[in-house]
Amino acid sequence: MTTVILLALTGLGLAALYFLVASGLSLVFGLADVLNFAHGLFLGVGAYATWWAAGNLPGAGSDGFGFVVAVAFGVLAGALVAVLVELVLIRPLYSRTIEQVLVTVGLSLAGVALLQATWGADARPFPRPEWTRQVTSILGANVPNGGLLLIVAAVLVLGALLAFLRWTRYGLVIRAGVENREMVTALGIDVRKAFTLVFAIGGAAAALAGALGSVYFGTVSPGQGGSLLIFAFIVVVIGGMGSVVGSAYAAVAVGLLQQFVNYYGESGLGDICVVGLLAVVLLLRPQGFAGKVATA
């Protein structure tokens, strides 16, 4: 029983990491119709910016409030890079899907190369609070605090996104734009500002995933974003394009499936089962768990 509890909670921690990456991807595709393969770059920027800030930014550090400052710096860096990418590279290519894919794939590769050239290709130890290295006993299972931190962060981000989408003017514009972008434009609303805002939100969430994911793994590396992006895309497709809640459900399913199968089966079998789940969903319910809905 203790093993099941441990696997369930560590699986939820992995699911939380996938959700933080997938939530921004889902919003960007739902509103702007952009398959952003450079989303992993925002994660990498957030992770390395947090790593750099912890050792160099005044007031930042690897423990206590200093760590919060370092993570905030990383999240801001990820959001700014996302806005810059949208304004300079994506905005001229709306409604040109092939060009979008080529540009974002190229940017993803260039971003990894830039991170490698700046900080090297090897993984570096990530500065993290001492308490995240410890475990908490829950119903007899010793659960890593880093995973619990991811779960708390994902729940807070999900709640903040839903509150923003339901109770703010720009949130309503985004929800309406996901349902019918042409109607929103016909009403005289400039959806381009909403596009930029969605990219900023997605970049911030991915950067937070990069920072907290590095706390969880204990290291930061240039290719970290790319490996997580694969599972984030799977989560988005399973959950339903444009649905934040659907992404949350799908992330839980993927994280738990991966964790339990990898433990009780052969190593790597969990990843294969996740791909199998994706295939089943595409065959039986191609619109995903939540379908093409606004995000609630």
UniProtKB/TrEMBL annotation:
GO molecular function: transmembrane transporter activity
GO CC annotations on file: plasma membrane
Subcellular location: Cell membrane
Family: Belongs to the binding-protein-dependent transport system permease family. LivHM subfamily.
Transmembrane annotation, as ranges: 6-27, 34-53, 65-89, 101-121, 146-165, 194-217, 229-257, 269-286
Name of the featured protein: Amino acid/amide ABC transporter membrane protein 1 (HAAT family)
InterPro entries given in the database record: ABC_transp_permease, BCAA_transport_permease
Entry annotated with the keyword Transport: yes
PANTHER family the UniProt entry points to: ABC TRANSPORTER ATP-BINDING PROTEIN, BRANCHED-CHAIN AMINO ACID TRANSPORT SYSTEM PERMEASE PROTEIN LIVH
Example of a GO biological process term: amino acid transport
CDD domains on file: TM_PBP1_LivH_like
Keywords: Amino-acid transport, Cell membrane, Membrane, Transmembrane, Transmembrane helix, Transport
Membrane topology field: Multi-pass membrane protein
